[in-house]
Records
---
Amino acid sequence: MILSANRNAQVPKSVGFYDVQAKEALHLVVSLGTFIVLDKYLKNAFSDHNIRFPSALFGMFFLFLLLSTLSFINSGAANKVEVFFSPANLFIQRWLPLFYVPSLVVAPLAVKGIPAIEGAKIGAILVGGWMGTLLVAGYTTVQVRKLVNTELLPVDPVPKAAPFTSTERFSWIFVMLLSFGIAVRYPTALGPVAVTAAPFLLAATVVGYLMGTSLPEKATNVFHPVLAIVLSAELGAYALGIATGKGFEATLGEYLTKSTGSPGAGDILNGFLGPVILSFAFSMYRQRKVGTGCNCYRQQHDLPPVLYL
């Protein structure tokens, strides 16, 4: 009887590794897709109403206010929203430098007609202004802290993105080599030449990032991963230009076309800038306790709120 009962009992099925991976991938696609859809909706709405304010920036503040309001009413609901977008936020955090480099990659085309003396003046102004901004910002921060005598609150731990693996590096190198061969042998395989070259130039950009982040920490202090990204993308454009006979400048011009009909690798990366800005709402939301602590101090000592903006 006991043996028969055990046979009829239902044995719970274990969740396999690939099941977990599939669920995580689906969660990432849905959460990141929500960011993309929201960004597109805001862009279209602002364009239809001729609103010149950046739509992604409005969306960021809206999400931050929504999270803050939900946290005040029901913290559990706010946590659920944060958990839902967590895969997308980790994805953006992991690949963030890639979304800012397209303009840097095509910088040689922008400065081509500028004389050397004028370029040196512009560089001196940029470097001097950057250093001056850092000094003024640092001095102002120190003086404001001394003035209000605030206590720095501990920051909530932020989940870190997973480091890149050797499998990812070799996979992207394989994609880069394969797409290079296709772009050289069949330059119109995907339609316009820029579209066919986009997979190779995109892979070259990603490979530069993966290699740059794999350097020792001391090396990254001198050779930042962003420099590795730019250098890898430009070397890829140079190699493709030589192989196709089009030259470096013509190939680099296909990196960022700013055309919806024939987008290049840079246009694909720029397409994520809106979702990136929207994701900053969650970073602001995680840091809200610092502002809460300052607000409590202001109320206790009857200080003007302008110091805490």
---
Amino acid sequence: MDLSSLGRALADTARNLGMAALRGAADGARRSATPSGRNTRRINGTRSSNRRRPRPSPKHPAPAGPDGLRCGPDYVGRPPTSYSPSPNGVADPGEIVWAWVPFEEDHSQGKDRPTLIIGRDGSWLLALPVTSKDHDRDEAQEARAGRFWLDLGSGAWDRNGRESEVRLDRIVRLAPQAVRREGATLPRPLFEEVLVEVNRHAS
């Protein structure tokens, strides 16, 4: 091989080695950048999800009731009832009102919901929880759990005009201070129908 051929061969080899080195460097840069990018997106996504995740709502404690007590334990047995609705700004039997209702499993907490006032027990109001959830489809399941409902139809207590049901087997003792606002008066025939079912399910 003459010197010119040897020079060309060395030049070609150097050029090929240089291109291979450049490709290797580029591939290495891509490999090092790709995991970092994925991690950044994952971390950013996690942080973003954490920002969107709602914080636990603060406890909604029961307001003070008669004698400074919180809302009392649920009433058991056939309740004393009456029908005396009056648009006087005070909750009366026969009215559906919005009130703070304790959770069945934890009376130290609760939420605002419509309730039907059916009577009084001393200074307590006796009320039945009202819901817009339709329990017709899971009636058998609810009955197995000891929960029974009666359709009330719609009324002024629900501003969206939704059909409502009243629970028959849970009688809540409410402090008068727990009532937020009056909703509507239940017609007496329907009120009496509710009482018949309440007494039937009372233990």
---
Amino acid sequence: MASVLLAGCGVGRRRLVAAVEEAVAEVEGVRDVALETGIGGTFERRMSGTVAVEAGDRAVGVEIYDEAMKALVTVIHEELDDSGGQSFRVGGVKAVLTDGEELTAMVLDPEMSMPNPRLDRVTAGSFYEKYGLG
């Protein structure tokens, strides 16, 4: 419960971002990470930013991005309680390849139970099954 409350305050958000950035930076092929958290228009917690990857080839970039998102989602899962982690919005985290191409979370096939999924609705929980969490 304390982690849920802490994640809503400035200190908790900074701690969560630092933990996520550290985990993502350790992924082979990631050259830079710049993330931030905030509260969305409907008071949902969200993370956005970029993961710069050392890949000009799209297929390789998707693989690195997938590993980076696995690290990101795993930290969220470990740091927040189940409902807080599941509902945490992560669709604003994109990868940038060395040639400038941007990849969004949709290339990773998040589990979305809606007919027209949108990036702003992609949650950490959308990846729990894929990454063996929960």
---
Amino acid sequence: MAVSFFIAIPFLHFHGPPIGGGRCHVAHDGRQARKLARSRSVALFNPILFLGWASYHGVFGFVYLYKMFSSTCMYFTYLISSLLAIRRMVVSFSGVG
């Protein structure tokens, strides 16, 4: 486990956080895009890599995780409220209720 942790540090430092991150935001060709997607999926499903990235970046890693989680919750709250507003509008226009 310790070996995986030390292997994960440079890997995650180069590729960025395991969920929705990465230093390379623009993939110039298909090979790079596939490589980036594969590295993210490997990091996403490997908790050792995830904790290795967070502990390597210390407090900032956990602050990033908190901000990512809170923004995801805000996004889903906005999405649900928008869908409910659209439903109310459709019901009011159709006159069913």
